[in-house]
Each structure stands twice: as structure tokens, then as C-alpha cells.
DNA sequence: AATGAATGAGCTTTCATTCAT
DNA sequence: TATGAATGAAAGCTCATTCAT
């Protein structure tokens, strides 16, 4: 009478992930305190009570969600940057390509968005995210920039500033899309943004160079 | 013989602003739903009940807070950009100067931060902020860029992309400071960030030009 | 500079009564717990705080209101019934005349209405009202009826029942007007009600008598 | 194997009614605003929160309570009056019998009592009750009386007055019992009241007839 | 593994009451 | 005498969490 124990098993194994997906949607839409467990449960196709078979508390869901996001992103990106020891400009373009990919998958915005919104309430989460994601990526970028400066390819300037010049626009675009863009509104093409921005950063906005 | 009613009056007149200041601190720290009215009241040196003499509800406080922030910023900045019809590059530097000012006053980050965090829960607030602040500033910047392009001073590129290249790093810095920067940590000098970023955007990061 | 101490004095003396009038309106409209002191104060043309110069608490207002109502009604009516030692039928008509008067002054409904509505919350008030008003009037009526029965003018029947038959319709009319009658609706003429009811009670509704 | 879900279910199904019963007791004792939800919940053997699983708000409970009362009473009584097309006097006795039944079940007083006490605060409830209960019953009685008058069995008189003469005493008795009667005090027998009153109304209080 | 009825701590909000002026 | 800003206890309501089934 039991259709298939294996199917059941597979479903059960997938449950935590399904719940986290639903939680991500809710946290994104309503913030952590604004999100109701009942809503999350419904989003995962479960009853409220069942959620607690998989997570000890709502806060635990948030933590797990961030951790999952962290693991998915951090290392891979950093590796791609660091292992590339060739032309700094090529490496920069490579890095930009990663951003272009991220920007075209709105579901990836969710975790950083939540981290940003809830940093005040959950400092450890902000800390975790900074340590595991931001500092890793930022560090890799800064090293890349320094390499370019040493090689005389990049102008001399505080790498911290350069990092912001480089990725600030991508962060802004993420916030734009999750916060201000309206339902029907046309989205700026990620490829166009990334390549356009890279062009500006590398060559400058001005047609004639040498401004003070 | 009546000397103090005026003092009382003056305090009473100041109350709404004091409450909004306290509310701003709380919303920033805990988000809207996470902030407790009692906390806000204490921050304003009042009892819980007194807050309700000035604002009908917590939501009303949020709305008033945003509106106050909107009024303070929007038009003035836009005016300064539009009235300057001279050299686009000079105008850009002028605009950057405004950002440098904003970035050096962390209390000005509060409203945009809250808008970003609560956009999901209060769409009207996000809409108001976009209409009154963002679109105004963004529009002025886009017009400036087009002027520069028509004059042949700026390279041809979608102004929407250029705007992101220009101000994205400043947005990022705001988020950095309110979300990830740690208490003791040294803050990137706003002047340095603005002038450095402007230099990159205008002249490019590369020492030799003409990249594909 | 003081226009007239006497006028001031006169106003001050009238204050408690004005407040009670306002309280009566509010209690009638919203019930005791539903009525707000601020509302009562406004109705009396005073500030919330000033009310407390005249009454120690809201409950005190209710008590004073009932007491005032009690004093105004009780004895006078009873006296008129008891002093009339002549024809019981004439006495009954006399008593009915009092009810006709009361029914034509809706402001007199207020106190009994409030007593009825708040009896559960303030048993002592219900007790006071019963002792001072109802039992006095009821007692007088019962004595009158017994006199008529002894004299062979009235049929033999439990005087408690007769009292209800006599005044129930008037009570009902009071409730009807304060509870169910709609703003524009035409009011049943008190005179017609009283004389019609009296006619029925004295002579019967049937054209042919002697029903089992 | 599943024996108890049904028991659970049965309890859950009964809950709304249990809560309304408890609410009726509380509203009767303390009035609507005076009644505390926690009290109602305790009266129904539940926690505060559980009540809100069944009713959206305290006001909703009041509304449901009235509606339940309305449905229980209205039509049935009216039907009994209207379907009886025989002797008007018999019909009147029939109607009186219904009142005798109602008067002997104090739990039936609750709804009208609450309606009377809260009419000021909830006009729609008073309207509903009048439309669905009072006007229905009153209309049936008035038709009955007119039939009697046309048949020459009843004296000519405004039916509105006659209705008050007929049922006023019963209303008064309801108010007496819920408001003024003291705990130990002996209650007037409903049968005696109804039959006595009917006797008076039909035949008159006087031994000799023909009073002006 | 899953349900959903039930709990109760905790929040927002109201309002009688006080008090400095 | 009068004001009205301020208080704080108490109430309605929500929702994360538990538990019997």
C-alpha cells in the first residue's frame, strides 16, 4: 500500500532544502521577523509543525540558509581568481564574468539581501558572511589588483578604492532589482552592464585622457 | 509669571523629531518588525504611551521617517546638478562632491538603509523613495551624461550603465559601513573614495589605453 | 481684569452637573467601559485633566450620575401615589400619568438604561437603584393594587404579576426607544400608549368578557 | 488504527459553540468592552490564543453570538403564530405559551440582554436583531391583532399599543431577572406571570367594566 | 514523518489617571 | 481652576513553538 519507500526517502531527503528555499523567499519578501513560519511551511508544501522536524527554530533556518549560500559561492569564485596567474586584465574580465553570471540569476541575490537586511539583528550572521564570502572575494580581488599595479598595468591607487569601483555597480544592481525595480519594468541586461562597466573602469569614461 | 509653558511647548514641538531620530536608530539596528516601540520611546526619553501622542502607530513612524528623509535630500541635490550647465566633467565632479558629503555623515545612511531592508514589507515606501529621491537623482545624472556624450566629451554608452558605474561604489560603501564594517575598524576616507573612484571612471584603471 | 468672580463662581458650581450630563450621554452611547473620559470632558467643554478636579474617577462619575437620577425621581413619585388614598382606579390613572410624563422626556431614560447595561459590572449600583427607585415605586403600586383588591374593585391576582402587567409596556417602550428605534422613525405617542394600555388593562382587550 | 482523530475532530467542531457560550456568559456579566478574552477562553477551557483560531476578534465573537441567537429563535416562533389562522384568542394564548417557555430558560435572555446593552456601540447588531427577530415577531403579532379586530373579537386600538401591552411585561421580567433579581430571591413563576397577564389583558383588571 | 490544535510569551495599542506648569 | 503632556497598567492580538494523535 506504500507506493514507494524510495520515493518517500528521496522526498524526505530533499525536505530541508525545500524548506530553505521557501524560507529564502519569505525572508526576502518580509524580512526575518516579518516572515511567518506558517508561510514558509506552506511554501514548502508542509504543515507548520513538520518544519520543526527539520529545523529547531526559525533562527536556525536563517543560519542554515546563509550557510548554504556561503558554501555555494565562496570558494569556487575565489579559486577561479587566484589560480589565474596570467594577465591581470584577463583575470579581471574573468572575475567580471562571474558577476555577470550571478546577476543573471536573481535567486542568488536572496542571501546577500537577507544578510544586509538582518545584519543589525544577527551580527554573527553578518560576520560569517563577511568572513566567508566577502573577505575571501575582496581579498582575491585586492591581490589581483596589486599584481596588476606591480606589473605596471594598473595605475597606483588604494586597492580598497579600486575594489569598490569595480564591484560597487554590481552590488547596486542587485539592490536595484530586489528593492526598486517594478514588476513589469525592463531589466538592465547583466552582460551589457558588466561589459560596459568594465570598459569604463579599464579605459575611462572620457574620450580625451589625462584629467587631474 | 508664565515662564515655563514656553519651555514645555518647545519640548513638545521638538518631540516628533526626537522620536523619529530614536525610531531611525531602532529600525536601523533591528529592522521594522524587530524594533520595539518601548525601545524607541526610551531612546527618545519618553514612556511607551507618550509616543502614541505624536504618532498613530509604529508604521506611521516609519512613513514619517522616510518622508522626512526624502524631503531633506531630494530636491536640493537635483537642483545643484541641473543648474550647472557648464562642463560635464566639472558637473560630474560637483555631483561626486555631494556624495562625498553624504558618505561622511553616517546618519544620512539610515533612511536608504531602512528603505532597502523594508521594501518587501512596505512597497509604497520603496515606491515613494524611488519616485522622490532615486529617480530624481538618477534622472539628473542621466541628463548630465547625455549632455557629455552629445558634446563628445564622454564615450557612447547606455547612460543607465554609466550611472551604475558612477554611483554604485558609493552605494556599496554605504552598505559596507552599515552592514559589514566592524566597530573598531578603520573607515575608508570618503574623500579618498570619491576622488579615487572619479579618477578611475574618468581616466580608466589601465595605464595603457585601448582595450577591446 | 477678572470679568466677574460671580460668573466664574456660578460656572464652577455648575461644573459637576455639566460633567454628569456629558457622562450620561457617553455612558448611554458607549456603555461605561466604552466611554472615554476625554470624550466626557469634551462634552462638558473641559480638558481631560479638569474632570478630575470634580470627580475622583470615572466610576465615581457613574455613581454620582445614578445617585442624582435616583434622587430626582424616587420619592416624588412615591409620594404622589401613597398620599392619594381615594379611588384605586383614579390612583392608577394618576400613576400612569407620571409614566406618560417620563416617557415623553427621553433624557430620563438615560439612568435606568445605564443601570440595566452595567448591572453586571457594578452590582452595588443595581442594588442602589432597586432599593431607592424600583422597590419604592413597586411597593407603592403593590399597595395600591391590594387596596383595590380589598375594596373589590380589582380582580384577585398576585400583585407582582399585576405590577408587571401595568408597567412592563412602559419599560419596553423605554428600551425600544433607546435601543431599536431608528433616527427618522416616528415615535409612538406616550399619551396614546399610556391611555391605550390603561384601557386594555382596566377593561380587557376582548369585546366579550369571561374567558377562562 | 485511527481511533482518536475523530475524537479530536469532534472536540474541534464543538469549539466555536463552546466559545460562544463562554462569551455569552462574559458579555452578560461584564458587557462587551468589560469582558476579557482571557476570561472567555478560560470559560471555554482554552488558552487565550486558541480562541483566535476560531474567531478573528472579540467583536467577531459578539457578532457570531447574536447571529446564532437570531437563527435559533426568529423564524420558528413567527411560523407558529402565522400558521395558526383560527381563533385569534387561541392564537394569542399560543403566542403567550412561547413566551412562557422562553421566560423559563434564562440562558435565552442572554442575547437580547447583550443586544440591549451594546446597541449604542454596535448599531449594526441592534439593526440585525430588530430586523431578524423583533420585527418578525412584532409583525406576526400585529397581524394577529388586526385579524382579531376585523373579526370583532378585539377592541379597536392601535396595534402598536396592543403589542406593547401584550409583551412589555415579558420583556420587563427578562430585565428584572438579569438585572435586579438577587441571587437567593424567589423568581416569579413564568407560567403564573404569563397566564395572569393574559387574563388581565383579555378580560381587564376591573371587576366592573366600562371605564372611559 | 506529518498534522493541526493548542499554548503563552510578547508585542502594539489604548486610556484612566497624574502632575508640572 | 485649568491644561495637556506624560505615564504605565492592562487589554487585544500574533505567532514561534509544542504535543497528542
Protein model, in words:
The structure is a homotetramer of 212-residue chains. With 212 residues, chain A is mainly alpha-helical. Chain A has two domains: 56 residues, Homeodomain-like (Arc Repressor Mutant, subunit A, Orthogonal Bundle); 154 residues, Tetracycline Repressor, domain 2. Helix content of chain A is 75%, strand content 0%. Chain A contains nine helices and no strands. In chain A, helix 1 runs antiparallel to helix 2 and helix 1 crosses helix 6. The longest helix of chain A is centred in the first third of the chain and has 30 residues. The termini of chain A are far apart. The model of chain A has no long low-confidence stretch (mean pLDDT 87). Chain B binds a DNA duplex (21 and 21 nucleotides) through helix 1 and helix 3.
Question: TL;DR?
Answer:
Four copies of one chain form a homotetramer. Chain A has 212 residues and is mainly α. Chain A contains nine helices and no strands.
Amino acid at each position: 500500500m506504500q507506493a514507494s519507500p524510495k520515493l518517500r526517502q528521496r522526498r524526505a531527503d530533499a525536505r530541508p532544502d525545500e524548506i530553505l528555499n521557501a524560507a529564502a523567499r519569505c525572508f526576502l519578501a518580509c524580512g526575518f521577523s516579518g516572515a511567518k513560519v506558517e508561510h514558509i511551511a506552506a511554501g514548502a508544501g508542509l504543515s507548520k509543525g513538520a518544519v520543526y522536524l527539520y529545523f529547531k527554530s526559525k533562527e536556525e533556518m536563517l543560519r542554515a540558509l546563509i550557510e548554504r549560500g556561503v558554501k555555494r559561492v565562496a570558494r569556487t569564485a575565489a579559486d577561479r581568481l587566484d589560480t589565474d596567474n596570467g594577465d591581470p586584465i584577463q583575470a579581471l574580465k574573468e572575475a567580471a564574468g562571474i558577476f555577470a553570471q550571478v546577476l543573471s540569476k536573481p535567486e542568488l541575490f536572496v542571501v546577500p539581501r537577507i544578510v544586509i537586511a538582518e545584519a543589525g539583528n544577527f551580527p554573527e550572521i553578518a560576520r560569517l558572511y563577511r568572513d566567508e564570502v566577502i573577505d575571501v572575494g575582496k581579498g582575491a580581488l585586492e591581490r589581483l589588483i596589486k599584481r596588476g599595479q606591480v606589473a605596471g598595468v594598473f595605475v597606483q591607487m588604494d586597492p580598497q578604492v579600486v575594489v569598490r569601483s569595480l564591484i560597487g555597480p554590481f552590488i547596486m544592481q542587485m539592490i536595484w532589482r530586489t528593492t526598486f525595480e517594478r514588476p513589469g519594468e525592463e531589466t538592465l541586461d547583466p552582460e551589457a552592464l558588466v561589459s560596459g562597466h568594465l570598459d569604463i573602469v579599464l579605459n575611462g569614461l572620457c574620450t580625451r585622457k589625462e584629467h587631474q
